[in-house]
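Weekly puzzle thread! Below is a chain. First person to post its structure in token form gets bragging rights.
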Amino acid sequence: MVNMQDTLLTAGQFAKLARTTKRTVLWYDQRGILLPHSTTEAGYRMYRPQQILDFQIILLLRQLNFSLEEIELHVKDGKSLMSLFAAKKDDIAKEIQSLQRTLSNTETYYNNLTTTQVLVRPEIRTVPTFDIYYIDKTGPYAKIGDYCQELKREFETLLGHVIFLTIFEEGVYKPHQAKMKIGVIKQVGMKLKPDTKVNTMTIPEYTTLTYSHHGPATLLSLLWQELGKYRRKHKLKLASHLDFADLELYIHTSLTDTPNPDEMEFEMHLPIEYDERKL
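Winning reply:
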């Protein structure tokens, strides 16, 4: 019979057969991911040839973007590769969707810059009159989400697809101290709590330069600046009959039904004069 010790490999021999470096083998040992079969009295780590397959599985998992922590759990808990791959498959699908959205947005911005010389390519449309519930706020743009949540807590019932919005009263870029009305579009079935301080108002019909943004809210200030550039470039006059400057509508956000920032949807409305509808 062949002595088991005769079939064992030193870390150097193992590394050579596995097409890696001894340093890498020892590093995986230190992480508790690829432990030697035994250690000699002289302190040499000895590996079984079959462990080369274990090493290749580790490489495969790393190529599939498994973290070292996930691989450690796989080794320690004896999880099957089937369960690991099933979990990673969902993660990869979401990552692909995110990359596809990023590519789509990149192509959109590139095409916009080509055709309009700004990042946005807005439309002009007329918005019919609508009613809102609102609260007045003066503060930073960064707290708009908190203000919307504050308004949301004033309701006993919110039915259907709820659209929150921000009305900017001054029409200038004030990221730290802006005067705003934080609102929600009125719908049948909405019910406020008793003794609420929420106000109501009617937004008159207006014609607007509008742009829809799909993605995180972090880009909104930049896109507003680009929308303003587009208006000035095409010599479109701001509406003078309204008591506010512009509106930001939250079509799909974490306020309602879209927890993924990449899947959020916003509408930016920059009202203009009625008699200038052609670009």
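Puzzle host: Confirmed. Bonus trivia for everyone else. The longest helix spans residues 81-116.
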